[in-house]
Amino acid sequence: MLGFALHGPRRGDQLLRELRAAIGDGRLAPGTRLPSSRELAADLNVSRGLVVAAYEQLTAEGWLTTRRGAGTVVALAALPHPTHHRVPGGAPHPLPLRPGVPDLALFPRAAWRRAYHHALSTVPDADLDYPGPLGAPRLRQVLAAHLGRVRSARADPANLFVTTATAQALTLLARVLPGRLVGVEDPGSAGLAEHLVSNGLTPVPVPVDCDGITVPPPGLAAVLVTPAHQYPEGVVLSPARRAALAAWARAEGALIIEDDYDAEFRYDRDPIGCVQGVAPDVTALVGSVSKALAPAVRIGWLLAPPYLADNLVAARLAADRGGPALEQLAFAALLESGGYDRHLRRAARSYRTRRDALVAAVGEHLPGARVGGVAAGLHAVITLPSEVDDVALCARALALGLGSVPLSTLRHAPGPPGLVIGFAATSPGELTAAIRTLASLVK
Ligand SMILES: Cc1ncc(COP(=O)(O)O)c(C=O)c1O
To answer: What predicted TM-score, i.e. pTM, was given to this entire model?
Structure first.
């Protein structure tokens, strides 16, 4: 039925391994409906309880989601996870409409080449040694100033780690948190939740409303939030909620992990300052250049409260002794030359035009739909009439080469169906055509 059989003892563990492998290598694609526990148990010749337990475990880990009326389906991962995104043969990669992807054609190649050349020709021989567990000192200094200016962060280079993007910042935090339970936004990024699980943490869904995440329950070691532009709903964490979250963290002795996701792109007003700026004692600010430049650069940062710094230093030494220094120095040169700011301004102009094209196309071709989250960032969320099956819709769209993500797979609590759509990497004309295609699939 699913292309594998179980033999010998410990069949529950085998089943978990087989299902994770099948999802991980794309044999079970996102959105695929799994057989009922009864059917699979009969097929594998095991008890139904064993299959139910496996489905429950993988649901808790974020591999599967359970949807009323639709049974158990393979969840979509929002973090780039090549094996989770099976691209139809010959289709462009990344797929049009896939959320979280910047326009890779805009990557400032000439400015990066100049910055790298500058770094390489000026670096003293002594700085070709290990960069130290926090990363290259020059970048930490320049980046601290940048985060203070652009994000209103309280950035002291002594607590600022240059990381291998958000992914490593979260891995390091997982090693130093005192507990295993971490609140995550519901709806939220399935990819981030999966990343936490693979680092030994247990995500606990915390509802998001129109003010952003609600106050988490007691007993958590941390909460992972996207205050600047919530993924996927696109709301900004309100001032009252920022204060309530900080008060919760202080009362609980918990950490706010602020994923400063999409913060660079704000279309209606100046970017909103980060939570870390007002609550540096309980907040770890995490960010990367994955949206601003390209995911391939793999440079990010972790601005941690001082009480975590020593343990993070140990974790970082164990991980990679500080990361690749030449790339870090090149990024420092790009920041110092003003090239980074210039690139962000250029990209924001292009993304704004694309966002406008998306909103216009939805208004014209999907009249029953509501577009949200478009004041910032690289994605929009389109809420659909309740009778639409967003998983089936995205599966049909994927077959036509479109990478939209069904909103219901990013949720634990019930809510209206919808689509999460990336607009940054798709031209206005292609966006209009893609929305027309989606509309034809809804009818
Ligand atoms: C919610 C969220 N935060 C952060 C990231 C960036 O991760 P990284 O910096 O490791 O590339 C992603 C990637 O898509 C994401 O979906």
So the answer is: 0.82
